[in-house]
């Protein structure tokens, strides 16, 4: 009889310790309360249709300079030229990517302020260049 009680006691301790893993510390909402994650704290953003092209201004100077450098590459080094010359892909890439009115394009890039010689020194000292 004593052995049976000790087995039941050990079994109950084991089940209690195992069930503690599945104890959630989150309060259960009452059925009449609204769930906190279903409400917007501010009004939802007004999304513009993606099909409208960007008409806000000229491209960034770095984009123009990069396009000029890529146009000077020979065809064997420009393997993506066939991909980007596809009119459907070009039209899809030209679509507006800024979806909400509060998003803005980056004009002053912090990465452009880093001297290229410093970047080369870092890569050279790391053994990558």
TrEMBL record:
<keyword id="KW-0732">Signal</keyword>
<feature type="signal peptide">
    <location>
        <begin position="1"/>
        <end position="20"/>
    </location>
</feature>
<feature type="region of interest" description="Disordered">
    <location>
        <begin position="43"/>
        <end position="65"/>
    </location>
</feature>
<protein>
    <submittedName>
        <fullName>Uncharacterized protein</fullName>
    </submittedName>
</protein>
């Amino acid at each position: 009889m004593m052995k049976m009680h000790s087995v039941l006691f050990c079994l109950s301790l084991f089940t209690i310790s195992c069930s503690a893993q599945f104890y959630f510390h989150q309060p259960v909402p009452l059925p009449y309360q609204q769930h906190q994650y279903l409400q917007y704290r501010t009004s939802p953003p007004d999304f513009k249709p993606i099909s409208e092209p960007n008409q806000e201004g000229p491209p960034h100077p770095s984009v123009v300079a990069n396009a000029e450098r890529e146009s000077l590459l020979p065809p064997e080094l420009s393997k993506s030229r066939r991909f980007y010359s596809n009119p459907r892909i070009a039209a899809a890439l030209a679509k507006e990517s800024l979806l909400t009115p509060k998003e803005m394009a980056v004009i002053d890039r912090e990465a452009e302020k880093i001297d290229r010689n410093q970047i080369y020194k870092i890569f050279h000292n790391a053994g990558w260049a």
